[in-house]
Task: structure prediction
Amino acid sequence: MNRDYDVAIIGLGPVGSFAALLLEKRGLKVLAIDKDKEIYSLPRAVSISDQGLRMAQEVDIDDIYIDNSSELGGAGFVDENLNFIGEAINLKGFTTPNGWAPMRLFHQPYTDKEIRKKIKETSINTLLHHELLNVKNREKDVLFTIKNLEDSTEVECRSKYLIGADGGSSSLRKLLKISQEDLHYNRDWVIVDVELTVPNRLEDKAIQVCDPERIGTFIPAHLPFRRWEFIIYEDEDKNDFNDDKKIQGLISRWLNPNEYKIIRKAIYQFHSVLAHDFRKGNCFLMGDAAHQNPPFMGEGMMSGYRDAFNLAWKISYVLNNGFSDALLNSYQEERRPHAKFVVENSAGIGELMEAYAQASDPEEVPKELVAKGYGSFVLPNLDEGLFYGGKALDSMAAGQLFPQIVVYEDGAISERKDCLFGDGFTLISQHEISISDSHRDFLNKLNCNYLILDKEIIDSNPWVNGFLELGNTFIVRPDKYIYGCSGNDVSLEQIIEDLKIRMK
Result:
């Protein structure tokens, strides 16, 4: 067994798998470790967002999700009679600047299985049924010991960087003694996945059920599957919810027991917690190891995907392109505030459900709580970090995602062209770019791609056209976030010089 790696990843769930594929694609030697022998069988992720699918394109796993998913029709809050409180949010038939529908629902056992097959086709060294025992941060690498759970043998390995993607009970987070910030939503819930045995007659919207008797959530999932989630109150015995008869009673307002079979159920405590540190030495946390949120936004896995997408390109620029390790400090700077927004607003949806259920009139619910709950569906841009001047600026589009360029055929998207950006930074303009030799040399070190937008692309991509009103030339990072754009008295040369200073 090879014991020397560029990056080792603890945890091979969706987030760890995605991180491993990203790093391997960039030519790094990757070790992926998971304590489970088989794919995790209990209910977990059920949705992937437009940005999630765009990120999945990077390692060619978007088809895995598309082949096993359905478009979410909308979302909203309902009362005890399943009547909408206010207006439902309609998502059907809408394409975002990322080039995809806002949200799709998938069946995770299938996607995990297919992604695991994908990993086997790569150079990633995978060790299943192994656990992390100890870790030692050193100046330029990490020493760690793993244990084979089948024969109890122990092996010491070395990696330049170690990533914990090992879930809410993260062994790496505990070994590093990283504490967590409690954001005060902690409730027991039961999650139930069923398989329909009759044609579907349920709607395609995700609904938050604000019933005074028991709040819950219905998620349409991918047919023939449906999902329900129900709160378990403090005075109830959690073990009662392992009984199928109990579950059938909860689902009875939607379906009769002969119309489905229960395939999976699990009792979880929905947490809202955030690690104080996403980095410690040469170790990093991502996914649930770094942040845990109630699932009401459907953004748990997506936050982990954003972590992986942010960190992977930065690690590759340090190891492959010779940039300073200090670049990696921007990972926490960018990702922690964004993850905190998701955690807080996911909890806000849970709090709004409880408030609606307790109120005699929905109008009595505080407006700020309503705004927080419904506002959760719009994610913020990145704020501070690796952007022009060190902070995102609306006037320069810094911190915003540059739209995906798409090609239409017969009114529908036939191609999504993120491949035009390449794997490095991209300089996007409407005209030929003239810069100094020293700046061009620096951009070459960044593996910078030069993309000239022709009139056909601009005319057929209204999202792109909208961005061009802000400036004429954009510097886009490998994760598709805009570093800055020239215009408003800031020249392209100034932006490149600023990037050069920050990337040292």
